[in-house]
Design a protein that fits this description.
disordered C terminus, 32 helices, 853 residues, 29 strands, Rossmann fold, single chain, six-stranded mixed β-sheet, seven-stranded mixed β-sheet, disordered N terminus, ABC transporter involved in vitamin B12 uptake, BtuC, alpha/beta
Length: 853
């Protein structure tokens, strides 16, 4: 039984007396009883009890690292507790998985959105909705939360705030029994927060139970009915919000009295020297911006999210190009690399730009200051540990060890590491985009104090924040930006929350500055894509490479035909398509694996081994039963190979390269053991059957085209395809969405092996003899075809149509060199040039961002 269910509970050390709270007799919809969770030496949760009732907002508070997100991970099946029980609607569910949690009506908006960056907004919605969103008005889902997003936008192109809005839209559309909101307002502007609160109130009216995690007490006061506080993984308080003052809640959260969140501002004279002077700076998203910072000043940039503040900050740090204007530091004009070397930039999206996930806390903190920590070219480990430890202590960084992985820390503690790195680099300018996003009230005070100390030492500090209260308490000067232009500047006593908000809302944000916008927003908040936007979506989409390849194939074919008319002879067409079919099948298999972010180097030797096996059974005068048995053995070997690869990668701890390279060597060794030399002629009847043509076109080629179209349809429309792309796009987000990640990976390798089996049948018919060396070249050629088709080697992006066309072009090049009387060297030259050109074109096309109104 939950000991906190009927009486308020406070930490004795908090010294707070709370009146008895009124309780509801409504049956709990979610209960966590005695939940504990340990990560190594860190006790993340210890005997935690939480009761969530329908029709109420239950605020969950605590400092960064207190265990809030871990607890909600338990509630949603992402994290398995060491001990404790999970009850949904009064039923003990035992082991809970994300998929089971979703079926039981538990939805969550994560602090770091569980979105799939390589998929579009529409595809993300389908991935998060039951039955793939069939029958749902996806545009209506977005409009419901006021999300002015285009359904065809690639999520990777969205801002942090837009990703959060998308995550909120998915969760609200589910109309769940329990809605968990983990720091939902951290990146949102005022209007977006109001829209969110409206949705929360409507959900509560429908009887939804809402768990609301936040660091903002004003939001708790506005939206929540009751509150539970965690500290160091334990419950330290539980009461009705109406029964607590803000000071009481603060003491419950941090266990001490917090006299002031913001440090005292310095008295800056108008005669104080100007350290930073920006004149007429223009670039993508901002225009003709003037800004100055005197010694000791902190300058804030305010405005509705997406109006150019963040773009200007990046340009100020030399991270993006400018078209006009100057940046002067202590009277010296700086630009480009000079700015990068003299600035420390703290990004709003710390997961994407702020932290290196595979490095430790120490490595993340010290990476920008290695030169100053080095002696004779080697890092002084003792000094590195000392300075990182000292700077981390100033921010009260919570970590088991400086050698802990950065991703084992809470979001707020990761932000502290980002700031530690910034301070250790001894910057001449400190730039921070949303510095306290997802950071608790105690840590905010520490960050503000350090920023003030940095400014006092003469280092200009420029802060972008969507929180007017934060700008008021921290900044000496605030510049308000609208549509990429400065519309107001507030200094000294004029820097107030009311004045900042008034300047922001009084500006005209309705129309994007400049020429044709790719996207405009209607009066209802609905996003409408223009012709320019549709073209941009196409260029950044998965089918642009296929169109380019098709054009190259036709153009190149026309050129070769103009040089040699025999190029389009029926015999040549038939021969080329037979050769192409084998490569196409194997390339499609490689594409399946690459879509998950893996790679299979063993497909070439596997194809060779399958032909060697066939050479012992598929011979002239052998009974058909033996031939069919041979095909069964070949398929079984292929499937076994795929299973071994998948198991090594997902359960054996091997990287995809290491696992498939190991199998590459093993398969090639078995082939040479079975057939040290060529031998075992393939039955002519079987070969003829496999190479049957309709006119000059082999039936097998028509089959591979149908297979490619079927795979493409499945990739876009089926749960299998969405799972495949989701895993490749973001494995962690896919897991949160309930995708069985390990199974998807293993089946991808099996699918690749089955496709290779199909390719081996055609290879067998082509060479007509068991040759252990014939399949090896297909490994690199298949990877090349997939890359030419526009797939990302990181996974999540690509198309099977593009892969098929990539294989067509490669086979065309091999064939054309003969008709052009060129040596074999040109085959490799052409392939290399094509890959370089394709990579340049695709990268350029996909880096073209739309203009947002």
């Amino acid at each position: 039984m939950n000991p906190h269910e009927n009486t308020p509970h406070l930490d004795p050390g908090a010294d707070v007396t709370t009146p008895t709270a009124a309780r509801t007799d409504t049956r709990p919809v979610l209960q966590l009883d005695g939940v504990s969770k340990r990560y190594g030496a860190v006790q993340a949760l210890s005997d935690v009890h939480l009761t969530v009732r329908p029709g109420r907002v239950h605020a969950l508070l605590g400092e960064n690292g207190a265990g809030k997100s871990t607890l909600m991970g338990v509630a949603t099946g992402v994290t398995q507790p060491d001990t404790g029980a999970i009850l949904v609607q009064g039923e003990d569910v035992g082991v809970l998985t994300p998929d089971a949690a979703g079926r039981r009506g538990i939805a969550i908006v994560h602090q770091h959105p569980a979105v799939l960056p390589d998929l579009t907004v529409a595809e993300n919605l389908r991935a998060g909705l039951p039955a793939g969103g069939r029958g749902r008005d996806l545009r209506g889902v977005l409009d419901r939360v006021g999300a002015a997003l285009d359904l065809e936008d690639r999520v990777d192109d969205l801002s942090v705030a837009q990703k959060h809005v998308l995550e909120i839209a998915k969760a609200v559309a589910l109309e769940p029994a329990v809605l968990i909101l983990d720091e939902p307002t951290a990146p949102l502007g005022g209007d977006q927060v109001d829209d969110l609160f409206d949705q929360v109130r409507r959900a509560v009216e429908r009887g939804t139970a809402v768990v609301y995690i936040t660091h903002r007490l004003a939001e708790v006061r506005e939206i929540a009915h009751e509150v539970t506080v965690l500290r160091d993984g334990r419950v330290t308080g539980h009461a009705e919000v109406a029964d607590l003052t803000d000071d009481q809640m603060l003491r419950m959260i941090i266990g001490r009295e917090l006299t002031s969140t913001f440090p005292d501002k310095l008295t800056t004279s108008a005669d104080a020297p100007v350290v930073l002077q920006v004149r007429g700076l223009s670039g993508a998203g901002f225009h003709d911006v003037d800004l100055q910072a005197r010694r000791g000043e902190i300058v804030g940039l305010a405005g509705i999210v997406g109006n150019g503040q963040s773009e200007f900050l990046r340009a100020l740090g030399g991270l993006s190009s400018t078209t006009a204007g100057t940046v002067e530091l202590d009277g010296a004009a700086l630009k480009g690399r000079s700015l990068v070397e003299r600035t420390a930039y703290m990004p709003a999206d710390r997961h994407r730009e702020g932290v290196m996930p595979n490095l430790s806390v120490r490595e993340n903190a010290a990476v920008a200051s290695l030169r100053s920590l080095a002696r004779r070219g080697f890092v002084d480990a003792r000094r590195e540990n000392s300075v990182v430890g000292t700077e981390s202590a100033k921010l009260a960084l919570k970590t088991a060890s400086l050698e802990s992985g950065i991703m084992s820390l809470s979001g707020g503690n990761q932000q502290k590491v980002v700031m530690t790195r910034a301070l250790l680099s001894s910057p001449k300018i400190l730039l921070s985009d949303e510095p306290t996003q997802g950071v608790d009230v105690g840590a905010r005070s520490e960050i503000y104090t350090l920023m003030r100390a940095v400014a006092a030492e003469g280092v200009p500090v420029v802060v972008v924040s969507s929180d007017a209260k934060e700008l008021e308490g921290l900044c000496d000067r605030v510049v308000v930006v609208s549509r990429g232009r400065v519309v107001a500047e507030l200094t000294g006593g004029d820097v107030t929350e009311e004045a900042i908000t008034g300047a922001v809302v009084g500006a005209d944000h309705r129309v994007a500055h400049g020429g044709d916008a790719a996207q405009v927003t209607t009066g209802t908040g609905r996003s409408r894509t223009t012709a320019a936007g549709r073209w941009s979506h196409f260029l950044r989409g998965d089918y642009a490479p296929a169109v380019i390849l098709a054009a190259v194939v036709v153009g190149f074919g026309a050129y070769v035909f103009s040089q040699n008319s025999r190029y389009l002879a029926a015999f040549n067409i038939s021969s080329v398509l037979i050769l192409l079919t084998a490569l196409a099948f194997i390339s499609l298999g490689q594409g399946i694996v690459i879509m998950t972010g893996g790679i299979d180097l063993s497909l070439g030797p596997l194809a060779g081994l399958l032909v060697v096996i066939a050479s012992f059974f598929v011979n002239d005068n052998k009974p058909y039963a033996l031939v069919y048995l041979a095909f069964g053995i070949m398929l079984a070997v292929a499937v076994a190979s795929g299973v071994v690869n998948g198991v090594l990668v997902r359960y054996g701890g091997f990287t995809p390269v290491a696992a498939s390279l190991t199998l590459y060597i093993a398969l090639q060794g078995v082939s040479l053991l079975l057939r040290p030399f060529q031998g075992g002629f393939i039955s002519a009847a079987v070969s003829d059957a496999l190479t049957t043509t309709v006119g000059p076109v082999p039936v097998a080629f028509l089959v591979v085209v149908v297979v490619a179209l079927g795979l493409e349809f499945g990739l876009r429309r089926s749960n299998w395809g969405r799972s495949l792309r989701a895993v490749g796009s973001s494995e962690e987000s896919a897991r949160r969405l309930g995708v069985k990640v390990n199974r998807v990976h293993v089946l991808a390798y099996v699918g690749a092996a089955v496709m290779t089996f199909c390719g081996a049948l055609l290879l067998m018919a082509q060479i007509g003899v068991g040759d252990p060396t014939q399949g090896v070249t297909y490994t690199l050629t298949s990877i090349t075809a997939v890359v030419l088709g526009g797939a990302s080697l990181l996974g999540g992006r690509g198309s099977f149509i593009g892969t098929l066309l990539g294989a067509v072009l490669l086979q065309q090049i091999l064939n054309a060199t003969t008709f052009l009387n060129l040596s074999q060297t040109y085959q490799y030259v052409f392939q290399g040039v094509l890959i370089l050109v394709a990579a340049a074109i695709y990268t350029r096309a996909r880096s073209t961002r739309r203009v947002v109104a």
